[in-house]
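Internal tracking record. Fields below are filled automatically when a chain is submitted to the structure queue. Please do not edit lines marked as system-generated. If the sequence contains nonstandard residues, flag them in the REMARKS field before resubmitting.
Queue: standard
Priority: normal
Entity type: single polypeptide chain
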Amino acid sequence: MRLNLFKMIIAGCCALASSASAAQWDRYGGQGGRQFTELDQIHSDNLARLSQAWVFRTGDLNQNFSRKSHSFQTNPIYWNELLFISTSANWVIAVNATSGEEVWRFDPQLPKAIGYSESASRGVSLWHGDSEVCADRIFLGTLVGQVYALNALTGELCNDFGEGGSVDMSKGVGEVDIGDYGITSPPAVLGDLLIVGSAIGDNRAVRSERGIVRALDVRTGALLWLWDPIPRSSADPAYSSWADDSAAIAGSANAWAPLSVDEERDLVFVPTSSPSPDFYGGERLGDNRYANSLVALRGSTGQVVWHQQLVHHDVWDYDVPSQPTLTTLQVDGERLPAVMVVTKTAMLYGFHRDTGQPLIGMTEQTVPASDVPGERLSPTQPFSSIPPLADQGALTVDDAFGIAWFDEQACAATIENFRSEGIFTPPTLQGTILNPSYAGGANWGGVAVDESRQIAVANVNQIPALVRLIPREELDAIRATGELDDWDISRMAGTPYFMARRIFLSPIGLPCTRPPWGKLVAVDLVSQNILWEVPLGRITDIAPAPIPNFEWGVPNMGGPLLTKSGLIVIGAAAEHALRIYDVHTGEELWYQRLPAAALATPMSYEVDGVQYIAIAAGGHDQLGLERGDYLVVFRLSE
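SYSTEM-GENERATED OUTPUT FOLLOWS
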């Protein structure tokens, strides 16, 4: 009897400890990347008392960089009453979680005079172990491909890791253009493994850096295994999906979004991106597996367990942009272990974690063909049975939008002259309307999942883009006409074409299609239907001129946080605001202005029985938003 009682006490103790751990935010996206907190002290009945607890300013406003854009996308992690954040300049800062006072900071001294293809640093990783040098470690990946190991208590380098505390991940990936190969998402920790992806600048050439995923020893930094999303050996079953010898020369297909791990199953879930270059695939014909896929790797070896390709032969820049979310799905009354991912195509997918079998229906559907010389597309693409979270339709002149007649007419003229057949309309020489755009649909904010309620929530963009392929010999003449003045032009070396692209905006700078331009969408995972959707954001902070503060929904990056008490907390919108919604209805319950737009994902933690909510508010240069360096934290007032 005493033994049984002892076992019950131990079991109760461990269950409490496990629950407490799950309630804290010690990794990117929280437990399983679900963007869900078990904390429920803050609920719909006391939101009137939710107010700012403190604000911390990092000091990073991109003031030392002349050729790098600015953002502040960190998802803070919590440990030992400290919050750990990273900034656009790759500073790592530990902040007291109750007072907002700085405890330490680390600056890797990024090169100042080079250009960067990215500005993002979405956070850091935490490891606890038995190392004599640093028992508790913070890991940072930088925009020049370094991985640093820091003492979590002091911020000092862990000198037993790599060379003096860092490993150069830009080695072994081929020829590197500095500033175009980096790490923007925190590495994943699986036991004593540190698993690192990469961000690679798009559209430069057929031959770009290898998008390999690597596992390092967390103590020494030694390379334990690597996996290349482009199969280089004919023995790999995916090799045949690359025509001729294209798998030998293609680059990228990298995993720039956060990875997820399942410790119990010894699995690493990897979201991969497009092979190089993004918008023309004539030099890499075939489906191009394992690119644009969700791939399950064996954590201990790096071997492929299963994969699901979500875009065949990508020529739309439809990377898998978000962290895979580990959850359970209720299928025919049974709860099954699942991994879910939301994509730029605005589609939500779910698979059995062990086998990759779809738990959300997935079918191959016919899509438009290419008329570009040298290109050959897949005749079908995989579609989720859940209705798309954003518009995927073809545009007609009747869809043109403007707040003045000349604005609308200019948008209508573009629609009339560009090819538009809905999602997967391929790039053309005449010009194509991509709907959704290369920014999505969904992006790196991912999907938040409430397992008990079986509700998933994601924020999406609903703004098309324009893309055009230009024969190399014609570029100068077309540029001379001025018609490419507002376009981004990429060289795509090794192909017959340059690529020009831009978001589909009117002459005064607003989207050419009707609002909402950004939405928050909830999905009932049992019925696999849209539960509700609402516009996300007002146009106050992006309007080119003073106009009424319409709640039209705006461009958004970052993601939602769900709480056990049934709240959705989200910034994300291109607006200086944080909002809270009811998870069942989508009703807005709380609104707070912020000092800058919070294009980041909130998190929540608890200290001494008090629940806090934290979010980074930093604006974004590429969206034309005011720069910020604010970590803003809220709690209930007494």
